[in-house]
Specification:
The protein has 260 residues and is mainly alpha-helical. It has a single domain (2-259), classed as MetI-like (MetI-like fold). The protein contains 10 helices and no strands.
């Protein structure tokens, strides 16, 4: 119970911080508010960047732009994967075989390269990256759903429902899929860190929103030249990425312990 509460608190805190980030920002993240390269102080808690913009404001906006697109990716990937995995497990035969081979194909091909190629083809941008990652991220959830649904199908309560005349569609949605939900929830929570890092990687490569949008990966990339002279500028967005990823890993571990 304690682990589950810690998980909920961690996820809730990150969501609230991401939602309120623009409201908590002390300045406009796109405008120069002071001289460049100011060190962290009471006036600017994280200092200013190479242009003179408030770094705390840019990090708070960047956390919002990293968190909510990651939630969208997880939602659509889990929805696609759950639907295909459940369909294959319930239908069996050639349908299951085709869907299983399709998920294996997406698993074998490096998802990062496929997503990069997709973004390069359709153009850079945050939501283009979200679309590209969502299209290659679903096999993990499809395999979890397929495995859980097939395991639950042999349990006594499912057999009893089948003997009672419950039709296959209702049997799947009422009895089998709910049993797979805990595993899917834990997997999605743990996967948030990977998605956040993937989005930050795309932004780092310049495939996210164009400058001067406050994206954490792009901020870290543009300020790498200042690492040895003005360390706080690249460190602030990098630490924000770490905090987001660490919080989701903590929440995933907590949920896994609670369900166990």
């Amino acid at each position: 119970m304690i682990a589950g509460r810690v998980a909920c608190i961690a996820l809730g805190a990150m969501t609230v911080l991401a939602a309120l980030g623009p409201l908590l920002a002390p300045a406009n993240p796109l405008l120069r508010v002071d001289v460049p390269y100011l060190e962290p102080s009471l006036q600017h808690w994280l200092g200013t960047d190479e242009i003179g913009r408030d770094l705390l404001s840019r990090v708070l906006y960047g956390m919002t732009r990293a968190w909510f697109p990651s939630l969208v990716i997880i939602f659509f990937s889990a929805a696609i994967g759950t639907a295909l995995g459940a369909l294959g497990a319930a239908a069996g035969g050639w349908v299951d075989l085709v869907l299983d081979r399709l998920s294996e194909l997406f698993t074998v091909i490096p998802s990062t390269f496929v997503a990069l190629a997709t973004v390069a083809a359709i153009g850079s941008g945050t939501w283009h990256a979200v679309l590209a990652i969502s299209l290659v991220w679903w096999p993990w959830y499809a395999r979890i759903t397929r495995s859980e649904v097939r395991n639950v199908a042999a349990r006594p309560f499912v057999s009893a429902a089948r003997l009672a005349g419950v039709r296959p569609p209702r049997l799947l949605t009422r009895y089998q899929l709910p049993a797979a939900f805990p595993s899917l929830l834990v997997a999605a929570t743990l996967d948030m860190a990977n998605v956040i890092l993937m989005l930050s990687f795309f932004s780092f490569l310049g495939l996210g929103a164009p400058a001067p949008a406050p994206e954490l990966g792009a901020m870290a990339a543009r300020s790498m030249v200042s690492l040895t002279t003005h360390w706080w500028i690249p460190l602030a967005p990098a630490f924000a990425i770490f905090v987001l990823a660490f919080a989701t890993n903590l929440a995933g571990d907590g949920l896994r312990t609670a369900f166990e």
